[in-house]
Every structure is written in C-alpha cells, then in structure tokens.
Fold this sequence. Notes:
This protein has 378 residues and is α/β, with parallel strands linked by helices. It has helices at residues 18-28, 56-61, 67-73, 87-96, 100-103, 130-133, 139-145, 162-168, 179-191, 204-212, 217-236, 266-269, 291-302, 311-316, 351-354, 365-368; strands at residues 45-51, 78-80, 109-112, 117-120, 149-154, 172-175, 196-202, 242-246, 252-253, 259-261, 272-275, 282-286, 306-310, 334-338, 343-345, 358-359, 369-371, 373-376. Helix 4 (87-96) packs parallel to helix 8 (162-168) and helix 9 (179-191) runs parallel beside helix 11 (217-236).
Amino acid sequence: MTTQTVEPTMPRYAEAALDALSTSILASLGVPGEPNPLGLEPVERACLLVVDGLGWDLLRAHQAAAPFLSELAMTASPLTAGFPATTATSLGTLGTGRPPGQHGLLGYQVAVPGTGTLLNALRWEHGMDPVEWQPGSTIFERARAAGVRAFRVAPGHLRNSGLSVASMRGAEYESADTLGALVSRAAAVLGANAPAMAMVYYGELDATGHMLGCGTDAWEYQLAHVDKLAEQLASALPQGTALHVTADHGMTDIPAADRIDADALPQLRDGVAMLGGEPRARHVYCEPGAAGDVLAAWREVLGGRAWVASREQAIADGWFGPVDPRFTERIGDVVAAPAGPWAIVATVTEPRESALIGMHGSLTSADQLVPLLTLTTG
Ligand SMILES: [Zn+2]
C-alpha cells in the first residue's frame, strides 16, 4: 500500500458540482430563483441521464467501448460529485439542487442522532420518515411550482423507496424497468409536454462494477449498453431537447490486499460507538468524550494514506458544503477517506459491503469526478 501524499479533489459546490447542475437545469427551463453557474442555454425541454457509477476517469479510460459518450467528452469538463461520493448523497444533491450539508443525506450509513442507530439510506429499513429526514424542497417540486412538468424515469421498484421520497418527491414517476423502456418513456413524456424536464436513472453499471470490478470486461460491456442508451435518447427525444449525461460518483477497484479491516483492529474500535459510512468514506461516531483519542488513533493507524478529520474540521474545509445545524450530528465525530485505491472495510459488521470489488466514496479524482456531457437534439 502506498503512502504518498496526494491532494484531495474537493467538491466544487454551487460552481461545478451536482447541485450546480440541477439548479442550472431548472434555470435553463425558466424556473425563477435558480442559479445557473453552468451557464446553460434557455430550453423548453431538458433530460438528465444519471448513470450510476460512470466516473469521468473511467469513461476516459474506456473510450472504445463508449464512442458516443467519448466524442461528447472531448469538448466537455467533469463535475465533482460531492462528499461522500455515494449514490444516496449524490441523488440527494441532484434531487434538491443543494449540497449534502443542506439536504442532510450525508452518506450510505449515518447516525440517527439520539437513537444509537444507523440509517442505511439505500435500504431505509429504520422507519425514519423520509420527509422529516430531508425536509427541504426538491427540484421537482420547484419545477412544478413554476409550471414546468417534472418527471422521473426509473425502475419501478425505486418508486416509493425512502431515498426516493427524501430526495425526489414531487416528481411524476414513470416506471421503466429496461433500457428500451427508459428511452421510450422519456421520449413520450417530453414529447407530450413543454416546458418539461425528465431525470432518467440507470443503475446497472454501478452494480456491475461493485460485483465484478470496474476494470473488467463485464464493466466495459455494460458501458457499451450505457453508450447505446445515451445515443438512443439523443435520437428519440423531441427536437431541441437539452440532453445532459452525468453520474453520481466514479469507482475504483480495491485489491484484496489493500483493505484495512476495522473489525480486526482494536485501535480503530476503541472509543467508537458506531462505525458508519462505507469503506471509502467513513463516519466514525465516538463514545462521549472519546473523539479526540479516536481521531489521534485513526490518524496514527491510517497515516498519510487517508484524509482524516474531526467533524468540525471536515465541515470547515467544505467537505459537505455549508452544513445546516439540524444535520451536524449526522456527521461522524471523525471522518476518514482513503487517499488512494484502498478501503476501510468491516468484515464482521458489513460482510456484504466488505466483499465488493469496485468501491467509491472518497475525495480522489476516481471517486469525485463525473462527466457533464451535453447536447441539444436536432
Ligand atoms: Zn455504488
């Protein structure tokens, strides 16, 4: 495992991160009060394709498998996802147009303050009310209030998930369980409405990378399907639609030898009440009075291989954007993010997550940078 020091790729909230993309799209559709830092041109219809796990670095490394997207990438720049670079957080950012510190979906597993429990934002089995957890408006609600029809096109099983309600309530939901259905439903709803927007979500590239690795033939074959999905959208959407392609995070493969097991190292568990987050973005919740000792221990064990910060320091350094005081205690007393392709697994308490090959979450460019590819259909 290397110990070289690298600079973190810090999220560029409100300028060139996923929150900026969402508000810019609303602004392009004429929704008042929405900043347009990306300078998107006015349009009647916009389609945002969110490809789970399509990192900028990965796309650039696999151009032959994705000729359509790669040609668009030649004249494009990446965005930063945000921290942690994980689906729950990034869908919260895209769905609200606000940074994580303002929507409160602060990771894959975060503490529910005062309960001694963690909320898994993908499984949402906690019983927590999603509206209470993320009380702010969504971009879909703000679009509709301005007279813009706002659709979400995604697999049917996601429709009423806690994460969907928290991050994207107010969308008119179009269930689409196959690649062809995603294209046809997006084309249908945008063809019949203006002004209108549609957010299209595809999750299988991320799933392939987690299970098999993003450096594999399987991932590359899956990327080719994504490329065709984007190409079909570009030809099927009504003329003059702005099509934007982005992702919620990148990914990196973690060799078996490059995993520190927090469940096997007492130094990483002493004084720790709950271990949250995920292997490349850890929220460490401490016993009362132990935060200082835990911070010192984690810094000593992880050394220069990770960015390790106290909650206060991580907030001050802008990891989450400006943090709403209601959400502060959802952040770990200590936050840790690997500074290279390795991970802090927990083989006993998180056997499923610890077995994954591809992972994401940290502040490296592989995790943070995602494409912003834009075209206007002709
Ligand atoms: Zn993932």
